[in-house]
């Protein structure tokens, strides 16, 4: 992906908007994962927790509003109805907002860490 987005803003600017919005909306355990070497669809995952379905849904709605106000256009939002895990697709950044139980079950951080390790091992010379 490129650092310049179709909206005219940069991935760095979008990242700043996302992280400050999540902090403002009281998200906790915010993690960033660079997946640019592993995923052709996006460069970064941001994973954050909310303490209830209402909190997760509210974070997603407010994140979308904040991103739009900054001049970026979200590509989509999935999972708002149940709000155990809401995905906000911002093209170069995909934001995963999860309740702690769901986050512990899927453990995306470990999944992508393991994927990176497998790729590194596969690329090692024989």
TrEMBL record:
Task: Return the Gene3D superfamilies for the record.
Answer: Beta Polymerase, domain 2
Spell out the subcellular localization from the entry: Cytoplasm
Return the GO cellular component terms, semicolon-separated: cytoplasm
Has keyword Repressor? yes
Which top-level group of life is the source organism from? Answer: Bacteria
The GO molecular function terms of this record are:
ribosomal large subunit binding
Q: Where mainly located?
A: cytoplasm
**Matching InterPro entries:** Iojap/RsfS/C7orf30, NT_sf
Keyword entries, A-Z: Cytoplasm, Repressor, Translation regulation
Q: Which GO terms describe its biological process?
A: cytosolic ribosome assembly; negative regulation of ribosome biogenesis; negative regulation of translation
Q: Share what the entry says about its subunit structure, partners included.
A: Interacts with ribosomal protein uL14 (rplN).
Q: Which family does it belong to?
A: Belongs to the Iojap/RsfS family.
Q: What does this protein do?
A: Functions as a ribosomal silencing factor. Interacts with ribosomal protein uL14 (rplN), blocking formation of intersubunit bridge B8. Prevents association of the 30S and 50S ribosomal subunits and the formation of functional ribosomes, thus repressing translation.
The molecule here is called Ribosomal silencing factor RsfS
Q: Which organism is it from?
A: Elongatibacter sediminis
Q: Per UniProt, what is the name of the gene that codes for the protein in this document?
A: rsfS
